[in-house]
Amino acid sequence: MIYTIDILGTIAFAISGTLIALEKRMDLFGVLIIASVTAVGGGAIRDVIIGNTPISCLKDVSYTYTIISSSILTIVFKSKINYLRKSLFLFDTIGIGLYTLIGIEKAIEVNLHPIIAIAIGTISASFGGVIRDILCNEIPVIFRKEIYATACILGGISYFILSFYNLDRMLIFIISGSIIITARLIAVKFKISLPSLYKS
Amino acid sequence: MIYTIDILGTIAFAISGTLIALEKRMDLFGVLIIASVTAVGGGAIRDVIIGNTPISCLKDVSYTYTIISSSILTIVFKSKINYLRKSLFLFDTIGIGLYTLIGIEKAIEVNLHPIIAIAIGTISASFGGVIRDILCNEIPVIFRKEIYATACILGGISYFILSFYNLDRMLIFIISGSIIITARLIAVKFKISLPSLYKS
Amino acid sequence: MIYTIDILGTIAFAISGTLIALEKRMDLFGVLIIASVTAVGGGAIRDVIIGNTPISCLKDVSYTYTIISSSILTIVFKSKINYLRKSLFLFDTIGIGLYTLIGIEKAIEVNLHPIIAIAIGTISASFGGVIRDILCNEIPVIFRKEIYATACILGGISYFILSFYNLDRMLIFIISGSIIITARLIAVKFKISLPSLYKS
Hints:
The structure is a homotrimer of 200-residue chains. The first copy, chain A, contains nine helices and no strands. The first copy, chain A, is mostly helical and 200 residues long. The first copy, chain A, has one domain.
């Protein structure tokens, strides 16, 4: 089940990367690169800084197939993609929940402190978008208009609280994943975001 | 011979980085950094993601000497560099061929899938330029106007086809390297590039 | 004592990152990320390229506490921060000296050539600011208006000269650290910087 969620998240991330690259008038090569970094960039940074190499996305070629096919289908059916908007948003949100938790577990495996582990989980879920924005020469959108980092952090905290009570791993995953997903859905529905700290 | 090609490629990459940094009105330190990342950045990303650390360019100080001297000579003889344009383009193209194949072999050494290996070869050859463009605050030129990624991918495919027939390693290197070089020379001569996917 | 200097340097770097992120109208999450990369980004690149993983800043959670509290205090007392300008500049300069020397020693530990070690020391001290500027969509200021790279390089060279005479490690640290600090203070006082290589 985790694998299915992972692939659905990869599809959602790859499609979002493709759409942004198309807006920037990139060619096929550029689009595929942007789709790839959006999909696997967060996990890549996580693996590189904790020393988990070769990084995970290189070890399983199905990510490559998923990204290339999602990206090409998006290019071909670009005008129709709007119909999938809601499903994609859902996949994206579920993906974020999963990547946060996987990031936290990988950090725990190398004996890092819970606070560091939550930071690494958040990085895993959000830095694909950061690299995408940098390659597109934009200030990362997540730094200006908080979209989901707070949700990841909330989920991360619940992960550690639940672990403290020695609950079953799958149960912890489901509860803290649901917290991340719910927090983000609520934030988007009610247009809640962190305030800009700029005072003019 | 491979070592000579490697150094010639490094010179060509360092000079191209220097010229772009000069246009951006950087000082000596900035110019040297841009020259270095252009020359060794692709291989650095390759080594970091496959876990080959300390990364290769740190292990052999001759790259540093080559980059610093190429860069300083370019600054001093800037007005004359145009006479070398054709040779530099040739070194650059041969370098790309070599870096692609070295990248593929390093990926195979850590047991990665052929498709992943070709991606890593292409990254080795092209991401020096990507980092250069990001540090210069530009959208990477390679994402908009395909220059050589397709050539790298063609060469990578031939590498694996030839390996399948158990040919001699040096022969495989020469044939697939020549394919990369020829593909790029033809593309530049006839101004072939991937079409932008943007439809206005 | 080294640990104290390290923390003071981290505070100075985190505050400088926070101030720049505030100018870019980022939200709290963006500000914390920029503060963190400014403070630990140089050391992170150093650790990643020499293969020292998990990277050091993940292993000691006190950096995280230091960065978060420095950043939040800066946000709250933003209008008062100007009174600390001189102390911050001093902490920053001392931090640069320390990070250069620590970078050099980590490079020596993995048997890298002195010239490479000096380059890694300089990267440790200066690339936090480079990543900060890239995330803020600016050409890194250090590439245009040399602030301290030359000081780091001078200090690195003295480190190796002194090591050649087998002096005590702490003495070498103090002398070459002082050279870096003095060189930077003089450069700033007399507004010395590398000339732009651009000729219009």
